[in-house]
Design goal:
There is one protein chain. This protein folds into two domains: 71 residues; 244 residues, no CATH class. It has 16 helices and five strands. It has a five-stranded mixed beta sheet with strand order 3-2-1-4-5. Helix 1 crosses helix 2, helix 3 crosses helix 4 and helix 4 crosses helix 12.
């Protein structure tokens, strides 16, 4: 990928008169994302000033997003009927549930808050579980774990329901997700015709019931969005640990660069090392624990639109429509083609 990035960036005015080799600058920019490293040792290693490292790495991130975003992220959205049928077929192969075209969920990463005088702004970014500032994001992925829609930049105390309403995916759902397709999410969001969630109170569902079988198959599919967050944070240590950048805009630029590189690696079959794969599972498990901790708070946000003046624009669909569609899906489920293992074979046989 280094050669492709350099060849595309050489055509931009910003990099036409560099005093440093472009390959070295691009490697420094990517290294700064993949490792939690301060600017000074990186500048000494590259024989550059700290100011040059800061400005050039930011310029490389902006250029990568500008050049690759529509191709590697926006271009993956299932905007045509053929693309939606293909996406639904991939998810049905995994879980046996038809018509799903994307998985969505929210996550976040801790930051060192830039120096600003607005105390209220600083406080709004503090995560509800800790006193550390955090930026939250909401992502939608396909069956191959590639992100094709993301909203980034919400303060740490923002709920998933609020972030969902700001995504391109949700704002264009009437054209992107027509009947009978839907997106899948966790129980922290409200059930809607175009947003499917599992049955609540899973521990109370009887063994072997249709609702429990639906939840098991739904979880088999939906766990991939948690794995996406784990892979992102395993590949780019800056998202897994607290790191410092110059401004909130720089954080967003760095994150979007990580998304582009993440999708590029998956599209080109560049996997993780064995140690990284173990770390993905650890990070995915941490995401699930955070989800459980968030769920009680986000359930109050499920009815967020009831007291919000813009609720009709954000969640105009009826809950009853989602309930009816979920009931219909339960009758249309089929055993997934990729079921493996004796336990799974027994489950699908039952």
């Amino acid at each position: 990928m280094l050669g492709d990035i350099c060849s595309r960036l050489r055509g931009l005015d910003r990099f036409s008169t560099l005093r440093f080799p472009l390959e070295q600058v691009v490697l420094a920019a990517v290294y700064r994302l993949a490792h939690v490293v301060t600017v000074r040792p990186l500048a000494e290693h590259c024989d550059m000033s700290t100011g040059a490292v800061v400005s050039l790495t930011r310029a490389v991130w902006e250029a990568i997003v500008h050049v690759y975003w529509d191709e590697m992220v926006g271009g993956l959205r299932p905007t045509t009927e053929t693309a939606r049928m293909a996406a639904a077929a991939e998810f049905e192969e995994i879980s046996g549930i038809p018509n799903c075209i994307g998985l969505c969920d929210g996550s976040g990463h801790h930051i060192v808050f830039p120096n600003v005088d607005d105390a209220a702004a600083r406080e709004s970014y503090r995560y509800f579980k800790t006193s550390k500032p955090q930026i939250r994001f909401f992502a939608t992925c396909d069956a191959k774990r590639r992100i094709y829609d993301v909203f980034y930049g919400a303060p740490g105390r923002t709920s998933d329901a609020e972030m969902l309403g700001r995504t391109i995916m949700w704002q264009t759902r009437s054209s992107l997700c027509p009947e009978p397709y839907f997106f899948a999410s966790d129980g922290g969001l409200a059930l809607r015709p175009q947003l499917m969630t599992p049955f609540a109170n899973r521990d109370a569902l009887s063994e072997g019931s249709a609702e429990r079988q639906f939840n098991l198959r739904f979880s088999r599919m939906r766990v991939r969005i948690e794995q996406v967050f784990g892979i992102l944070k395993a590949r780019f240590a800056t998202l897994a640990q607290t790191f410092q950048l110059e401004s909130l805009e720089t954080y967003e630029c760095a994150f979007r660069t990580c998304v582009v590189l993440h999708n590029w690696c998956i599209t080109n079959n560049l996997g993780l090392d064995e140690d990284d794969e173990e770390r993905v599972e650890q990070l995915a498990e941490r995401e699930r624990r955070d989800l459980a901790a968030r769920r009680s708070r986000d359930r109050s946000a499920v009815n967020w639109g009831a007291s919000n003046a813009s609720s009709s624009a954000t969640f105009p669909d009826s809950h009853d429509g989602g309930t009816k569609r979920r009931a219909r899906l339960m009758t249309e489920m089929r055993p997934p083609l990729c079921a493996r293992g004796l336990q799974e074979q027994r489950f699908w046989k039952d």
